[in-house]
Amino acid sequence: MADKPAATAATQEGQARTKMGAVKMDDIARMAGVSKSTVSRALSGSPLVNEETRARIQALVESHSYRVDTRAQGLRKGHTHTIAVVIPLLHEHDQPISDPFFLELLGHIADAVADHGYDLLLSKIGPGRTNGMADLVDTGRVDGLIAIGQSTAHLGLERLAARGMPLVVWGAQLPEQHYVTVGSDNRAGAERAVAHLIAQGRRRIVFLGQRTVPEIRLRHEGYVAALAAAGIEPDPALDVPTRFASAAALTAMRSLIAGGASFDAVFACSDVIAISAIRALQDQGLKVPQDVAVVGYDDIQMAAFYNPALTTVRQDTATGGRLLVDLLFAQIAGRPARSVMLPTELVVRASCGAALSGTTTPGSR
Amino acid sequence: MADKPAATAATQEGQARTKMGAVKMDDIARMAGVSKSTVSRALSGSPLVNEETRARIQALVESHSYRVDTRAQGLRKGHTHTIAVVIPLLHEHDQPISDPFFLELLGHIADAVADHGYDLLLSKIGPGRTNGMADLVDTGRVDGLIAIGQSTAHLGLERLAARGMPLVVWGAQLPEQHYVTVGSDNRAGAERAVAHLIAQGRRRIVFLGQRTVPEIRLRHEGYVAALAAAGIEPDPALDVPTRFASAAALTAMRSLIAGGASFDAVFACSDVIAISAIRALQDQGLKVPQDVAVVGYDDIQMAAFYNPALTTVRQDTATGGRLLVDLLFAQIAGRPARSVMLPTELVVRASCGAALSGTTTPGSR
DNA sequence: ATGAAAGCGCTAACAA
DNA sequence: TTGTTAGCGCTTTCAT
């Protein structure tokens, strides 16, 4: 590890940097026999620079693999070319949760951000400290914020938006809300899923999810609406709160079963929760979907591969992620941005006990 | 959304910013009746500043919620206080994969980075373009790099390390390698798992994973070693390459079955792959573990909740993530850093058909 | 078509 | 203990 660099160093004649002392715009200028300003212009594609000069500069830039210092550039131009993604739920109870849904969404956001030529800062700021989010832009680290899940931060988010901070959040669209959200139609998605369960002849349907989260509250409304449409009175005993982690869901389901509750279906507020619930049911010798039908939410990749394959409400993370980013850039550019509610799709597979002839298996369609 | 800010604005007397025009250090200095330098000193906890002055400055800073501009600070001090995490596999074939293992590791890295008071830049640079990684630090965007999975970028990573760039990669420890890695003992982990399968009486064991990835190659070595120890000759027909995505694994497994291969166990190179494989087996009416025993790798949270619960080789993402970060900071500080190989643990659950009396179910221990 | 000079917001000598 | 003066590396008037 000692001589290799030296050897390489001897190769290039200019040898800009061996380890430190990166080449700067001034250096390129000197070598090209022009001024800093000209180099700057050449690099930013200004038309007021001689083609020949530009070529000479380009060559130098290449051969020395010079890159403009974005930090200095940003300081001068007043922006950062990076946006932050904040995932409150990433640190539920100081333990990273690992819901695949987040990574899927994050992946799409990363793509979209990169397409705009921006960098992405991932922040672990919790929902409690929205001023932490504000700092991110106040200290000139990012140009805007994307929050995934409003969680309990609603008020804080309102404050940020009121301050004119570029901000888009993935989550529920609340009444009287002043910040921009992108999210699926939680109410309709849940209603549709529960209606489907009812159509299968299920009547005692468990609601598995924590209603303190705005999106979950909307899903609960959909649940209630579907029941109402069928003339069913919601039973409080079947309203089971649980966090998004597998273990929490398992525990919740187990104690429901232990409590002797009677039910024939479960509407779980995420696929991860659904999977844990199924596990708990099977452990007790209950068959899914025969004894208990289960529907999840999200349609994470693994949903199709579980056994039984999971019926679930698909959230379109691809267009969601892109929209999140587009709306943020609109705000940064000073253009108006309006909240968007994405339609959901009920993906019927085996776990809900629907027309088994049509069981959707991955790859089979 | 129009009058709220105005109302709030009237509340605070100083009213630093309504929307733009963030307050700067100069402003605080003027208000405090001191110079910029004094403010700078006060804020950085310098001992050469009068306590009373410091208090006055602090008060102003609070009331105007002033934050120093990290971009300017970094420009001056020569660092960025942010490090980049590059996940090559995040964009296999232009499609984001969503292996929970990555999120778990990423979460721990995020924690550790935050503990150091640094920011985390998430980059989608692919394994092919390691010069893209170099740019990240050359353009002054980050102080160092963490690559998750060396994938096919080995040579590029070597070059970066040779240039003296702070870099740590999660992956396999290759011979003659000049960059620092953190990773589990892939060879031993795989060997142990396969040996366990053999101990259950299985002899025809499928290897499910792509050997072009260094870590997978090591796992294959372990697989071969375990077979050899039992006097079993590896059958090339049972060496099934597959990418990390669920769909790819499903396809691979299906065509193996369709090809009429005979086998009684599967060693899958990730839990996601294992789950898809089980799905494929069950679709064909094969029982797991009775007909085919399956072992996975990673021990993602969901492994315990699958049906059957997955026997798997646990990789300790918590200490892995922390180590990755610690070693990177060591390099940044100019301290020496040595590669670390983490021990793995075989977590025996139902899918491998081991002593079923002891089936490990989540929460039951 | 190019150069000189003035900053972007901050820190770090060097003085006082 | 505090202020003054230079920059960090770049962009951008304003001249030429």
Which helices and strands appear, and what pairs or packs with what?
Two copies of one chain form a homodimer.
Chain A: H1 4-11, H2 25-32, H3 36-43, H4 51-63, H5 70-77, E1 82-86, H6 100-115, E2 119-123, H7 130-138, E3 144-148, H8 154-162, E4 167-170, E5 180-184, H9 186-199, E6 205-208, H10 214-229, E7 239-240, H11 246-258, E8 265-268, H12 271-283, E9 293-298, E10 311-314, H13 317-332, E11 340-342, E12 345-347
Parallel strand pairs in A: 1-2, 1-3, 3-4, 4-5, 5-11, 6-7, 6-8, 8-9, 9-10
Antiparallel strand pairs in A: 10-12
Helix pairs in contact in A: 2-3, 2-4, 6-13, 9-10, 11-12
The first copy, chain A, binds a DNA duplex (16 and 16 nucleotides) through helix 3 and helix 5.
How would you describe the overall organization of this protein?
2 copies of one chain form a homodimer. The first copy, chain A, is of the alpha/beta class and 365 residues long. The first copy, chain A, folds into 2 domains: 82-183 and 318-343, Rossmann fold, CATH 3.40.50.2300; 186-314, Response regulator (Rossmann fold). Chain A has 13 helices and 12 strands. Chain A has a 6-stranded parallel β-sheet with strand order 2-1-3-4-5-11, with helices on both faces. In chain A, strands 7-6-8-9-10-12 form a 6-stranded mixed β-sheet, sandwiched between helices. In chain A, helix 10 links the parallel strand 6 and strand 7. In chain A, helix 6 (100-115) crosses helix 13 (317-332) and helix 9 packs parallel to helix 10. The longest helix of chain A is centred in the N-terminal third of the chain and has 16 residues, at 100-115. At the A-B interface, helix 1, helix 5, helix 6, strand 2 and helix 7 of A face helix 1, helix 5, helix 6, strand 2 and helix 7 of B. Chain A binds a DNA duplex (16 and 16 nucleotides) through residues 24-26, 34-38, 40-41, 44, 48-50, 53, 68-78, 140. Chains A, B: Keywords: DNA-binding, Transcription, Transcription regulation. Chains A, B: Pfam families: LacI, Peripla_BP_3. Chains A, B: It comes from Nitrospirillum amazonense.
